[in-house]
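User: Predict the structure for this protein chain, please.
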Amino acid sequence: MTVELAPVAPPAHRQRNPLWFAWQRFIGNKAAIVAGGILLLLILMAIFAPLITPANPDAQSFLAEALAFPSAQHWFGVDNLGRDFYTRVVYGARVSLTIGFTAALFSVLIGIPLGALAGYFGGKTDWFIMRVIELFSVVPPLLAAMLLGALTRGGYFTILLIAALFGWVQVCLLVRAQVKALREKEFVRAAQALGASPWYIIRRHLIPNSISSIIVGFVLAIPLAMMLEASLSFLGIGVPPPTPTWGQMINEGIDFMFFYWHLAVFPTAALAITVLATTLFGDGLRDALDPTLKGR
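Assistant: Here is the predicted structure, written as structure tokens:
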């Protein structure tokens, strides 16, 4: 007599955390992984610049070799004032990355509350904030930056202010869209039924659940600030010399472009690689944290 055994049900799959799926999507994006590695390398180079550069960035230690081409002793050559150009490019990363990350932080601090208010309350509040966004959207950032930079004579804090004023728009729109999608969810309705105030719901429920949009907005605001700083420094109203910045070095290198190509090529390449890496990394984060935005 044979006894048929009932089929054994397969074990239930362990519930995965949403962050696990986001991580799997992110590591599947090879471009974002490579961009993240490049960005990390640039950050480490900027932090440990004194350990990996042969000279002081402002020291005119090589006047006898001024305008020398790249060599084993001077990887990026020597500029017209006898300064090691590799050293100045590496130290220029400090300025660009510091301005990029700081301006992005201020953009997030401005964009989060405005986006949350517009998304949750809607109506006149949303209308007013969207009109302000349209105002900032139609004004070219570089034109406004040139005007403000000329009035304030440029400088580090002026660039931070200008970049934050134009960088918050994207963060605000991302947070607004996320909050609008969340405000009809059951946990928000339950909080409202229990008598929670709108400010409590925004602070404790909606903003924490919009963290993915906030991270994406922060990362995507970095290249905007870096390009703005480079543009203003190129025009001579950015960070004043002798502090090395990529835009300033590009501006000076243009005068020697036809005979000493390295003075313009290396800072331009450094800026382009950094902006491209940051943008690809931000796009990868966006696609990983909110795959519904992919391809838009």
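Residues 8-13 have pLDDT under 50 and may be disordered.
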